[in-house]
């Protein structure tokens, strides 16, 4: 399949006085319709990479092409319209607005961008709620529903406009394991049904092993990148245990 996102030589630096380079020239592409799990130690640059390829933050250097459109340079705010229409987000903490019901929260991104949602969109929101067994809570407020339900609302909110790409940064990080994997199972099934491209950051190996591809970041570089269909699950598990990286250790003196 064709790539929906292509990034070349991505560099990200933070700070004006003390400059810290967090991504050191990443080359990475994501196939349309594929589920990619991004793993790696804390501070390895996973969120930074996700924020850049989802147009939330601009790279310091490098090229970024999404669906054939060049997003490499320029003011990130100019990309907001594209981002709102084509990209869905699920974060670790759901960011539901407390003064709106579950259904209203799902429709909120549309409301903010374009005003009163049309009837077909409301239908789609209700149909997603039905698929995720949420109809009984549709008129409840976030503080009246459980953490797992809140996260399902956030997933429905990310999917309701049928975005082409969904980015999820540890979407079940604040749920217990069982609820987390149930919520994630629902999310991946819906995403596969819709043919949506998913890039998901996770600390959970079992979740990563359900993706099509695993991308491991270590210290701002791609340490491993493999497809489950090619390696098989057993070799994938071994690869996840293996602490070595495909890149040469820059501290290793080239030996
Ligand atoms: N806005 C910022 N200003 C300065 N440094 C930052 C900023 N955002 C991230 N960093 C630094 O960049 C590095 C990578 O951060 P990032 O959040 O991408 O890591 P991560 O892999 O998502 O980690 P975690 O698993 O803990 O979420 C860290 O060292 C972090 O301190
Ligand atoms: Mg992170």
Fill in the keyword field for this structure.
binds adenosine-5'-triphosphate, 10 strands, alpha/beta, binds magnesium ion, Rossmann fold
Question: Could you walk me through the main structural features you see in this protein, from its secondary elements to its overall organization?
Answer:
With 255 residues, the chain is α/β, with parallel strands linked by helices. It has a single domain, classed as Rossmann fold (3-Layer(aba) Sandwich), CATH 3.40.50. The protein contains eight helices and ten strands. It has helices at residues 46-53, 80-86, 102-114, 119-131, 147-159, 177-194, 205-208, 228-241, and strands at residues 3-14, 20-31, 35-39, 61-66, 69-70, 87-90, 165-169, 197-201, 213-218, 221-227. The protein has a six-stranded mixed β-sheet, with helices on both faces. It has a four-stranded antiparallel β-sheet with strand order 2-1-4-5, covered by helices on one side. Strand 1 (3-14) and strand 2 form a beta hairpin. Helix 3 (102-114) packs parallel to helix 5 (147-159) and helix 5 runs parallel beside helix 6. The longest helix has 18 residues, at 177-194. The radius of gyration is 19 Å and the shape is globular. It starts with a strand and ends in a 14-residue tail after the last helix. The model has no long low-confidence stretch (mean pLDDT 91). The site of magnesium ion (MG) has 3 residues, from helix 1.
């Amino acid at each position: 399949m064709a790539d929906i996102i292509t990034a070349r030589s991505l560099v990200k630096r933070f700070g004006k006085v003390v400059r810290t380079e967090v991504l050191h020239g990443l080359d990475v592409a994501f196939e349309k319709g594929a589920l990619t799990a991004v793993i790696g130690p804390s501070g390895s640059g996973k969120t930074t990479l996700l924020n850049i390829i989802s147009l939330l933050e601009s790279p310091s250097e490098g090229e970024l092409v999404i669906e054939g459109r060049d997003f490499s340079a320029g003011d990130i705010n100019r990309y907001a319209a594209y981002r709102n229409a084509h990209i869905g987000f699920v974060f670790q903490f759901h960011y539901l607005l407390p003064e709106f019901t579950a259904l209203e929260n799902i429709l909120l991104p549309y409301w903010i961008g374009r005003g009163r949602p049309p009837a077909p969109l409301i239908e789609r929101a209700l149909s997603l709620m039905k698929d995720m067994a949420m109809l009984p809570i549709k008129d409840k407020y976030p503080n009246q529903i459980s953490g797992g339900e809140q996260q399902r609302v956030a997933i429905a909110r990310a999917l309701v406009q049928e975005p082409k790409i969904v980015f999820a940064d540890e979407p079940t990080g604040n749920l217990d394991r069982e609820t987390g994997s149930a919520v994630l199972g629902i999310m991946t099934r819906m995403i596969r049904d819709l043919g949506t491209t998913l890039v998901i950051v996770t600390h959970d190996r079992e979740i990563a092993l359900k993706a099509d591809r695993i991308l491991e970041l270590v210290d701002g570089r791609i340490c491993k990148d493999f497809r489950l269909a090619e390696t098989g699950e057993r070799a994938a598990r071994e690869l996840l245990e293996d602490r070595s990286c495909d890149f040469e250790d820059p501290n290793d003196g080239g030996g």
